[in-house]
Amino acid sequence: MKAWRIILAAAGILLGLFGVYRLFTQIPLSSLVALGVWLLAALLIHDGILAPAVVGLGLLLRRFVPDRGRRYLQAALLMGALVTVVALPMMYLRGSQPPVKALLLRNYGLDLTLILGLIAAITLSLYAIRVARDSNSADPDNRGDERQPS
Amino acid sequence: MPRERPRWWPSFSSTLRSTAVTSRIGLVLGIAIAILFVTGLLSHYQYEPWRWLPVPAKPMWGYRLTQGVHVAVGIATIPLLLFKLWSVYPNQFRFPPVRSIRHAIARVTVAILVATALVQVTTGFLNVLNWYPFAWFFPPVHRFLGYVLVGSLLLHIGVKLPDIAYGLRAKVSEADVLTEIPWDENPASHSNAGTLPDPPTPGISRRGMLAAAGAGMGVIVITSVGQTVTPLEPLGLLAARQWTKGPQGVPVNRTAEQAQVMAAATAPDWVLKVVGPRPYALTLAELELRTVHQARLPISCVEGWSVGATWRGLSLLEIVQQAGGTTDSRVQVLSLESVGYNHSFVEGPQLTAALLATHLNGERLDLDHGYPLRLIAPNRPGVLNTKWLARIEVLS
After folding, report:
1. Whole-number Å distance between alpha carbons of B87 and B91
2. What is the ipTM, given to two decimal places?
3. Topology (CATH) of B256-394
4. Does domain B19-235 have CATH number 2.60.40?
């Protein structure tokens, strides 16, 4: 394993330095400054805003949502959040292009609502099945701590 | 520096994060980035091929496949990357923040990796959406930043290889919990505590979480890939392009108005100048007489959309041969457009297969598709299929 680690690290450093060299020799300084701002902003926005918000939401769910329903809500929120990340810029940019480009013509807000609605419907159905099963179960101790099949 | 962490120091108690989970997400992300790197380099090769290795004409759907994959995987990598970063977020809060020079270097290289990955997928997606809020020319920066990203990723894999090996061997449900305390320093960490019952996960399980994230990314791929897998267009709720909405069933990337060629392209006295050992010119009427070749060829954009179409037109090779060129000639085609991607080079197998198209899907070429004449060749990026042709130069 040690040889592999050294090979990977050495190759990575060389390739990374090549990229930095190409950036600094081919790209104008003003562009590099803007790129630097974006790189820094990406770190700050992710680590400082997005990630803490997700952690905070998780804590709120743990505190306020009962165990049995929480796993379904978590799954739905996770799926929905991932789709929303991709849909948001398209919603924002809808209609920004000449129509012949056939680009960003859809009503992405409606499309996202449809997808989120579908996700909600599926997870709610699964949750309802779970509740129905639990209420049929003779042993109340089993409620809510079975592992989720996936 | 105090050895004990302060009481206010953030701590993480979720049992969802684990080295086993992170290494699995990381494996998928690594494969995705490898695919993006290879398909990205293949795309770059289309723009700057070596003279001795011209771009092949077969398979004609080659670029359609590689660039469609590049953009589809790239879009799916946005949520994948965020998921990966979520899974290791507690690492940011290890105490003390910097333990040694070596640790400081490691943290800086990880920061470079994370920043380049985030900017790479974000700006790539914005380029697909034709939105440029960033003050640099996208293609070269995307390529060079790709080198930095893949380089720092290889370094990261080298540094983390023992953790990756442990994580991939461990069962998802049983491996240690990843918190702000490194697992190998944490006696209470699950894997270090011997055979214990599963950690308490009263909410979603790790498997359930991986399945939900996979499903979310699956939804994104299925609802966006219709812009290149044309039969899936009806499912394309999140597709940027809709090929059915383009004129003559083909989307447009640069309109005649944007290119400022409206007047020149519709002028009745338009001629195609052919420059070579035996120069000549073709009028609009002469074009029509020679429109005898037909081909079914996809047009595949670097921005990830593509669609198959039926093209009719003239054989570029015949035009070149009439001017004294051969199948070995290097040919430059030039547009009426004065800026941007207003020319391209054709040689080798693509020269033999290329058409100068006058008709698209049975109709005279739309002005936005390059009327009166455009290049169309197999296995070639859309932007290099130059539109509104004015001049053909046989260079050798």
Report:
1. 9
2. 0.93
3. Sulfite Oxidase; Chain A, domain 2 (3.90.420)
4. no
